[in-house]
Amino acid sequence: MSESRGEDKPLIEVRDLERVYHQGEVEVRALRGINLEVERGEFTALAGPSGSGKTTLLNMIGCLDDPSSGEVRIEGDRVSGMSRTEAAEYRLGHIGFVFQAYNLIPVLTAWENAEFVLLMQGVSKEERHAILDPLFERVGLADYKDRKPHEMSGGQQQRVAVVRALGSRPRIVLADEPTANLDSATSASLLDLMLELNQERGVTFVFSTHDEMVIERARRVIRLDSGRVVADERD
C-alpha cells in the first residue's frame, strides 16, 4: 500500500477534503475544501463550535470515515479510500485514539483494556508488560490495573484510554473532545500528562475540541467554522 514514506514528508497531509452527508433530501456539507499539513511531534487542536466539522475531519484523518472528495495522506501514504479491512489494519499499526466516551470494554479490567491493541498486534506478554507497566506508573494507575471501568472515575478511565492509545506505539494520537466529560482539575491533569508525553516521546497529538483549556495548551490551533479552516494559529 505504501507509495512513499520518509522523514521529508509531513506526517499528515489533507488536500481539498470534502464531506457531504445526506439526511433525507437535505444535503449537509460537513467539510468544504479543507487543506492542511501536520508535522511530526505537533500538539495541535482542531477548534470550533459544534457542527464546525472538527470531529468529521478527525475521523477522516483516523481512517474512520471516507471523504466525498479530496484525500488524506499519512507519511505520504494515501489512507483515504481504503477498504474497511485495510483501514482497520492501518489504524492498528499507526494511530492511537482517545474518545470523549472513553470507549473502554466494560467487562475487561484496566490492564486488559490497555493491552487489547497490543494483543491484536501479536506482542508477547513480556513485551506488553515492558510497554504498559511504565505507562500505568506514569499516569498514576499502577494500583488500578485490576479494576473494571465501572470501578473507576471518569478521569481514571480516560487515563486508561491514554495508556491504551500510547501503548500501541502509534505515530499519531487522535483525541476527540477528551475532556468533555471531566471536571476542570481532572482535565488539566490529563492535558498536562499528554503534553508531557508529547514532549518526552515525540508522539503527535491532534485534538478536536471547543474546550479553552485544551486550546490554551495546544502549540497550534486550527480553527474551523462551517466546514472550513478560518484560522491557523501557532505559538
Automatic annotation (TrEMBL):
SUPFAM superfamilies on file: P-loop containing nucleoside triphosphate hydrolases
Q: Which GO terms describe its cellular component?
A: membrane protein complex; plasma membrane
Q: Which Pfam families match?
A: ABC_tran
- Classification via CDD domains: ABC_MJ0796_LolCDE_FtsE
Q: Where is the ABC transporter domain?
A: 12-235
A GO MF label: ATP hydrolysis activity
Cross-referenced SMART domains: AAA (SM00382)
InterPro entries per record:
AAA+_ATPase, ABC_transporter-like_ATP-bd, ABC_transporter-like_CS, ABC_transpr_LolD-like, MacB-like_ATP-bd, P-loop_NTPase
Please state the span of the N-terminal signal peptide per the UniProt entry. none
Asked whether the keyword Transport is assigned, the reply is yes
**Keywords per UniProt:** ATP-binding, Nucleotide-binding, Transport
Read off the Gene3D superfamilies from this record.
Answer: P-loop containing nucleotide triphosphate hydrolases
- Name listed for the protein in its UniProt record: ABC transporter ATP-binding protein
Q: Which organism is it from?
A: Lujinxingia vulgaris
Please name the taxonomic classification of the source: Bacteria, Deltaproteobacteria, Bradymonadales, Lujinxingiaceae, Lujinxingia
